[in-house]
Amino acid sequence: MVTSRELGKARLPLWAAGFVALICVTILGLSAWREWEARNVDLRNAEIDVANLAHSLIQHADDTFELADTLLVGLVHRLELDGTGPDTITKLQAYLPTRKSSDRIRGIFVYDATGRWLATTERLDFSNLNNSDREYFQRHRASPATGTLIGPPVKSRSGGQWIITASRRINDHDGGFAGVALLTIDVSYFVKFYERFDVGPNGSVSLLNNGGIMLARSRDESGAFVGRDLSNAPLFKSWQSRPAEAVYYFKSPLDGVQRLSYYQRSSRYPLMVLASKSRDDVLAPWRRAAATRITFVVGLVLLIAVIGSYLVRQLWQRQRMAQALVAKEANFRLLAEQSSDMVTRIGLDNRLLYVSPSCVRITGWTAEELLNSSALAGIHADDMERVEQAITALKNGEAEEARFVYRQRHREKGEIWAEAALHVTVASDSGAIDGVVAVVRDITEQKDLQDKLASLARTDGLTGLANRRAFDERLTEEWARARRDGTQLSLLLIDVDHFKKFNDHYGHLAGDGCLRALGRILSAQARRPADLAARYGGEEFAVLLPNTGPDGCVEVAEAVRQALHDLAMLHAQNPPSRLVTVSVGAATGVPSLTSTDFSTLVAAADRALYAAKDSGRDRLVMSGQVVPWPAKTA
Questions:
Q1: Do 120 and 112 contact (CB within 8 A), yes or no?
Q2: With a threshold of 0.85, does the pTM exceed it?
Q3: Is the pLDDT assigned to residue 500 strictly greater than 70?
């Protein structure tokens, strides 16, 4: 029984392995947590940066359009007071260039109620120009609202560049539509201004109106993105439910870059600023640093794992050695005493040092009676030399194990067949061979069964005679013996006449009975121990007669034919006798004088058999060099 102390020792390597694994997992877990936190810190810092940038840029946008709004309010107020007569327009044309005091303002324009240009800061001939088709003009004409309208970006007719329009309606003294005052801002002004800020190689700053129309975007000198409608983007689809400003992660519909951004809407104008950085750009420094740190941590964990594995393996090996030394004898006795086989331990002097309780069933003697007796006692004399050689080879170190079958004396049963498996044992201190362990089992029943199976494998199941395989083996043996001794060997090949007709007429059961009857006759005539009667195949039989000449061969053949005639089995399809008859071919040979191959004897007998059939059946034909035999009719 295992004690709690032994159980604790057994669990020590498991605890050590678990501790090493816990350390490795803890280090990896803490490292992963730290890297995740470092990643989140970098993202949060980037969020703060883009938020601050968005606050600054929306203020800049508000200031820009507030300036435009102020200029437009003053201009419209003056026109509504003075009217749009020639004198007023002449003064206005001289006045407008003085109001373009900032690089934020591209140009200032005044249109009458028909869209005709009245005055502008541009130095060009505008007498034939008309802007009544512009969207802002049509909206002012259709709506009495007097507020400033910030329109979508358009291409300037005076310069061809992208501009953002800010316009107000001009009313006459009766409140009717008298024209439009327009102020334009270059898109490139915002583009150049946004490029002052570092948002990374793939970052961007965008100015949009609340409808999702792109007004200006950094890194867009060609204006490829200006005027782009982004109203179907997720940011604008859920615009009403979103706060006025917030962090926003998205995949840009313009260039497909995953972005970290901050948007802020203006509180005074229908505008918003979207400041964004590429998430990959933000995380690139973290990834490089994390790769270095993770490589170091993984290397450290692998080193700890290797050292820990080595220590745990050493603990396992030492524990197994200790357990083996303590439990070796106990386990040996437990297995031996519970085994149905007899387990013995044999000393170098062939004395039995240990015998398991199963010895009573195997030998009939008790363990107390067998202890200190010779391990070779009771072994059959014919097997003694073989057993002694095997044990001696084991003790001399020539082999480590051996297995053999022998006969053993039993106290009550007489003699049994036993199988022994032997293995050497060595001293734990010196490693020298100190004896042999033998496991012995009773295989008498198994041996009898094997003998019966071997006999069945060589016997014809219908007639009980030897089968073709047994006949061929015996013929080989007897041919070799006859050649060695210079004696004669005779062979009879016997075939039932018209057996197929017999089967067709009387049925297969009657046919089987006919073959069994012939088998009994042949068995009775093969009287000597060396004689062999066999079923050669189908209705054909063979009789092997060692040390027999032509006369003896003819005598046996005639005895078979006569016994079958005496049996008088009816065979209506076998005229003229109407009885079962056989044709016999016989041959005799002397191997040393004729041939070294027994097939010559079989061929001679086979030719004689066919000659007997061709001569009218129910007869014996003798073929051979010694005594030729003429056809004979019974």
A1: no
A2: no
A3: yes
